[in-house]
Every structure is written in C-alpha cells, then in structure tokens.
Amino acid sequence: MGTVIIAPDFRASVFARVVDLCLHAGKNRLLAVTALMIGGIVLADWRAGEDISLGVLYILPMMIAAIVLEPAGVIILAEVCAVLRWAFDNPHSHVEATLRFLFASVAYICSSLFVIALLRNRRLVFEHVDEMEQEHRLRRAAEEQLRVLVESSPAGILTLDEEGIVLAANRATRELFAIPESEALEGEAIRDYLPVLSDALDLAAGTEQFHTAAQCQGTRQNGEIFIAHTWFSTYKTGDHVRLAAIVVDASEEMREREESGLRQLARSSRITAAAVSHEIRNLCGAISLIYQNLKDKSSSYGDEDFQRFGGLVKGLERVASLELHSIAQESLDAIPLRPVLDNLRIVIEPNWQDIGGTVHWHFPAQIPEVLADEHGLLQAFLNLAQNSLRAVESCVIRELTIHVSQEESRVTIRFRDPGPGVTDPKLLFQPFQQGAQDTGIGLYVSRAILRSYGGELRYEPIEKGACFAVELQVAQTVEQP
C-alpha cells in the first residue's frame, strides 16, 4: 500500500475549513465541547491509572478554547488542565512533579497562543485581502471612468514613447488627424502629424520633466493642415521618457478671429478716412475762399496756371466730399454684454495693477443682451479704459469705476475716473486735436463705432474727474422683420 502525501495547500484548506466551522459554531458551543473533552480526558486518565499519563491530550481542548477565549482566560484554563494532569500523575520526586507541572502549563499556554496567533494572522490576511479587493474595485472603477472620459473627450488625447511613436490615442485624436476607422494611429510616428511633439521629446531627453503649451501647425493624414493648440508634459516610466498631450483644432477659432479683425479694421479705416476727409474739406474750403478772392482781384484769371490751380482746388473738394455717416451694420447681432466686460477685465486690470490702481466693477444681477459687435464694442470700451489710465497716472487716487445700469430699452455703461477731467468737452469728439495722444481720433472712432450699433457715447460732467457713458440698445426691444 502506497504512502498518501497530502499537499500543503490541501492541509491549509482543511485547517481553514475546520477553523471556519469552529468560528461559526459559536462561543457557548465551543466552550461546551471544550468542557466535555476535558472531562473525557480526566475520566480516561483516571481509568488509565498512574502508570500512563494522558496529559498531552489536554492540548486539543486548549486549542479549541483558544478560538473564543481571551489570553487571560486561556492562561487560567491552561493552569486548570495542568492541575488535572498533575492530579493523575505519578512523579518520583517533588522536584519532578513541579517541573512536569510547569512544562505542562507552558505547553498548554503555548499551544493556545499559537492558535491565537494563527487566528490573528488569518484575520489580518482576510482584512488585507478585503482591502486589496476594495482597492482593485476602486482602481477598476477609476480606470473605467478615466477611459470613458478620455474616449468621450472632444479634445485629442495621446501618449508617446521616447521615439515619438504613438502608444495610445482616443477617438477625437483619430478624427483630428483624419485617420480612417479601419486604421489605427497607434504605432505611427507623431512627427508626420505634429512635429512640435517630436521636437519636445528631443528636448526632454537630456532635461528634467516639463509641461508647457504651444500653438503650432499640424497635418492630417490627407495632407490638410490646421492650427493646433497643444498642452503636453513629459514623464518617466523606469528609464524611459514618455509624453502625454492634449490637442485641439483651433483653425475655426483663428478664422473667426481673423475675419472679425479684418471687418473691424475695415470699419475703423473707413471712420479714419472720413475723419481725414473732413479735415481736408475744411482746408479746401479755406483754399477755395482764397482762390475766389484772388480770382476777383487778380488780372491773371485767364492765365493757364491760374486756371489749373482752380481745377486743383475743385479736385481736392471732390476728394474731400466723403462724409462720415453712421456706418450701419447690415445685420446686428444680439450679444451678451457680461462676457465682453469680463474680457475687458482680463485685458485692463494688469495695467492698473502695474500703476498701483484698482478697477471697481458694479453690475446688476441680470444684464440683458445688446445689439453690437463683440470686437468693436470691446475696442470702444478698451479705448475709454486706456484714456482713464493715462488720466490718473499722475494722481494720488488711481481708480476706475465701471458701472452698468439698465434704463427701459437701453443699457448704460459708465466709465468714471478721478483724473483732472476735461477742459473743453466741446472738443472731445473732434478728430486730430492738438495735444491729444497718438492721432487724437480715439473717441471720435469709438463714438462712430457705437453709433453704428444704434448706440451713443457721451461725456457726463461730474464734480471731480471724468465720466463717459456708453448707451446700447437692448436686443429684446428690437422687432425682427
């Protein structure tokens, strides 16, 4: 008959099942079993007589009792078992009896403590396994959320290895680079699509980790180019450098910005040209008067040069006949006023902080939409804020108050500063004034732009300082055709 070898994992599983059964039996049942076993051992030891000692069998009830008893109870029960063993023992001397009693007590206590340690370790293992399972579940949930976030993001997200090869890319990245659904971007070199990322990896090879942003030109798989906003950072995995990037197509934004800038430039150029023609017309009027006087007094009216001079004067009058009319928009759009003021805040507050000044903003809870062009309106607001900045640079109090209020069908935005004020308000909106900054047509152009929206720019006298009021039409009051 062959020897049966029990594998360690089988023995461990049997022990675990026995422990589970004992734990589920309950404290009272285990103590009752312990008492019965001790009683049975006592009876068997008594019948065996003094020649045979069955004291080693007390280890079994001690190990069972250790499952439910505290260490103090285990020690007391071990002493009881040691006394029972001693009662049926037949030692040769008092010293031998004492040593047997001590060794039995130590054996019972150590076997019980061994079981307590096993149970403690088992509990710690289970707690550790539960923690690991919980962490695993949380990690899987976080990974799933991250995967959904990355895959559903409208921005392109990708990672690269140190050679500039794409390791992973989301759906938006494949759409950005016009990758067909049947093909994969993974494994492709990013230099063919965004060379700036490949150059960044070359720089990161000999430097520390960095993160930055860049606006660059990208190329799609079909050869089409586009403007890309990129945010990228490098990181290390072991000895290897990796790069993670977020890419957004900014082509449409650039087109809208440039087209809007071109329209605004053309509008401002027409206003400036009209202002110049206005001044030329005044000069031509003076020249015409002088020419008429010379014609009446001079006998050389029939002279050819004199007649050419007259033709030159009339030609200048025709050139200067361009009048500055209200440049009406073909179609006015309803725009929210608050974002325009927020953009103004972003632009002007750093300059006021540089001179130690402050800007105070007073907005109502609700600001209606107005009829205007966002870029033109921002240009007019910026001109008024810059005028206030120059006015208060030499003052002790350097502040600007921008107050928004609504009056029936119009919204009024007031720009108030404690500067030296305006000496002659009648000349404020005339172009090419002597002593004005730059060309002296800032207020002239701003008022013309605002009038093209059906609005107005006016100066409001105050006791100290200057106040300019911008009036705009509320969008809801205009009837659509």
Explained architecture:
- The protein is of the alpha+beta class.
- The protein folds into four domains: 8-130, no CATH class; 153-249, PAS domain (Beta-Lactamase, 2-Layer Sandwich), CATH 3.30.450; 256-319; 334-477, Heat Shock Protein 90.
- The chain has twelve helices and twelve strands.
- It has helices at residues 8-25, 27-48, 59-65, 71-87, 94-152, 171-176, 195-204, 251-297, 304-319, 337-354, 374-392, 442-452, and strands at residues 156-160, 166-169, 211-219, 225-237, 240-249, 334-336, 358-362, 369-371, 399-407, 410-417, 456-459, 466-473.
- The strands form three sheets. Strands 2-1-5-4-3 form a five-stranded antiparallel beta sheet, with helices on both faces. Strands 7-9-10-12-11 form a five-stranded mixed beta sheet, with helices on one face. A two-stranded antiparallel sheet has the order 6-8.
- Strand 9 (399-407) and strand 10 (410-417) form a beta hairpin.
- The relative contact order is 0.05.
